[in-house]
Design a protein that fits this description.
alpha+beta; 3-stranded antiparallel beta sheet; 3 strands; 15% strand
Amino acid sequence: MASYSLIPIKPLEVEIRGVGQYAPAETVDEMIKFLTSEWPDKTKPAFHSALARSIEAMVMAAEPSAARAAFVDAAHAAGMHILPDDMAQIREAS
C-alpha cells in the first residue's frame, strides 16, 4: 500500500501556537494535521478550501503546491504568518 503521508511541499513554518511561535511543515500530511488538530478558526471558507486541497493532494488528485497555496491563504485568513512567505512583511513591520 502506498504511503501518501510523504508527499512533500515547499517547506514552511506556520505561526500556529501563538505570536512568534512557529511550527514546521514539509509534507501534505503535516499540513492536514495542523488543519484538523490545531487550527484556531475552522469556520472560515479559506480553512475549508485548504483542507479540501490538502486531501485532494493526499490522494494525488491535486498538486501539492495547490494545497500549500490554499494552506497559506487559510493561515492569512486566520491571522497567522507563514515563513518564509511572509518574511518581507514581517521585516517591514519591525
